[in-house]
Design goal:
Largest sheet: 9 strands, mixed
CATH superfamily: VC0467-like
Structural class: alpha+beta
Order of helices and strands: EEEHHEEEEHEHEHHH
Number of domains: 1
Strand content: 25-35%
Helix content: 10-25%
Number of strands: 9
Length: 203
């Protein structure tokens, strides 16, 4: 994945570590009312995780059993933090693959992608094994699939007013209910989501 680009005042900024918020003008129904946390963004393209669409049919504990990380009977002995890990529909690309968005207190050399000083992304089964043993990150969410853009594609969509961008904090991902994240980010930007959707599409 791409390494983080040094950002300077007055330069065009890459948006890794921020969130994208889908505008009503976005034509792709797969991303309607999506909030996407950008994990990587450079001249080579962008990659992010949808953070406001839970995979409600999947329980993290049962997924660990399915992946043979724990035995079925061991599930009752999972660390308390592992029981509450949210499983998200991370995006339409590679939906069978898991991506763990987590706090920066956990790192696997040559595997973990540092996003900023607070957040990282790890996409190997080793992090799931660590979580099951109580040795993983303090805070984590598992996403199935991701959203991706080719070179210049995201920039073009932003120019077309398909996306807004905003700063993000770990609290948005780990402490705010998934269904409330879209409205919360919109309100942080000073936008009433109800008024925005009601005026969308008018000349």
């Amino acid at each position: 994945m791409t390494r983080r680009i040094q950002k300077r005042r007055g330069e065009s900024l890459y948006l890794d570590g921020q969130v994208l918020i889908a505008m009503p003008s976005l034509m792709d129904e797969r991303f309607a009312k999506s909030v996407i946390y950008l994990c990587a963004h450079s001249h080579e393209g962008a990659m992010g995780i949808v953070i406001n669409k839970p995979a409600s049919h999947i329980v993290f504990r049962k997924l660990l059993v399915q992946l043979q990380i724990i035995e079925d009977g061991d599930s009752i002995r999972l660390p308390a933090g592992a029981e509450g890990i949210e499983v998200l529909q991370g995006g339409p690309v590679d939906k069978a693959r898991g991506f763990v968005l987590h706090s920066a207190d956990f790192f696997i050399k040559d595997t973990t992608l540092p996003i900023d000083e607070r957040m990282c992304l790890t996409a190997t089964v080793d992090i799931l094994r660590a979580i099951a043993k109580g040795e993983g990150p303090h805070r984590a969410a598992l996403a199935l699939g991701y959203a991706g853009w080719g070179p210049g594609q995201l920039e073009s969509e932003i120019q077309e007013n398909s996306w807004l961008s905003s700063s993000a904090t770990p609290d948005l991902i780990f402490d705010t209910p998934a269904e409330a994240r879209y409205g919360m980010v919109m309100r942080q930007l000073g936008i009433d989501p109800a008024k925005l959707s009601s005026t969308a599409g008018r000349a």
